[in-house]
Amino acid sequence: MKVISYNLRKNRAVSELAALADDHEVDVLCLQEAEAVALPARLQHLSLVHATERNRLGLAMYVRDERFHSRSAHTFQLKKSLHDRLLAPAHERLLGVRLHDSELGRDLVVASFHAAPLTALNSLRRHQIHAALGELRQLGPGLPALMVGDYNYPVFKNRLGTEMRDTGYELSLSDKRTYTRYKMFRGHFDFATSAGLDIASVRTLDRGTSDHLPIMVTAAMSEMPLILPNSAQDAVVAA
Q1: Cα 144 from Cα 225, distance rounded (Å)
Q2: What CATH number did the domain enclosing 39 receive?
Q3: How many domains in the chain?
Q4: CA distances from 150 to 65, 73, 113, 142, 214 (A)
Q5: Distance from C-alpha of 47 to C-alpha of 150, rounded to nearest angstrom
């Protein structure tokens, strides 16, 4: 399964999506900073499953409809930063979809996530990440899950990775940097968080018109049963 995550930079990179989906034979395309009204219903072999409507900087997901069927799709509000309260760029920062994989005859949960901007503290973003994973567990209890997106987490990623492992998830960074617009904030901003999946690779794709570079996650459902620690059921880091 190939999943691409791309922050469109206020929808500027929307014209690149069809070629991106086709060139990489994508199964799932997760977007951030998209304008729902400007998104086509189809991109080559992909169909639009769901998109946020209240956001100025929205989320969306496309899937290969010959392989995946959407059982349910939901958007979720997460704890707001001061930036969100003053400028209202995003009411919902998580879009989760429970998918049925017809090739494998199994369900999984895939999500597009956009954390609070760099003006917020890492503690708030950790709170959002844990809360987002909690919502996905409710969407598909016991199912494999993959959350990709713009985590806006430039430093102290080792701590975040440790927290993810403690709650039964793996944090995966791509092979190259995903954000290079500002010298002081260059680095890996776009991640993948997973449980019950074997992540073969996370690759940074070529630069487009966005300030973020797309990432492509290649994953397969694990043969091992998914067992999350008890603490994962209500793990939330205090802001």
Answers
A1: 9
A2: 3.60.10.10
A3: 1
A4: 25, 20, 6, 25, 10
A5: 22
107 located within any domain: yes
Can you give the residue range of the structural domain that contains 176? 2-222
The verdict on residue 232 lying in a domain is no
- Rounded CA gap, 229 and 150, in Å? 26
CB atoms within 10 A of CB 23: 11
Looking at the domain assignment, is residue 229 inside a domain?
no
Mark the ranges of the chain whose per-residue pLDDT is less than 70.
81-90, 181-186, 224-225, 230-239
pLDDT value for 89: 57
Say what the pLDDT of residue 109 is: 98
Domain annotation covers residue 202: yes
Confidence at residue 83, expressed as pLDDT on a 0 to 100 scale: 59
Residue matched to tokens 């049925």: 100
CA 95, CA 43: separation in Å to the nearest integer? 19
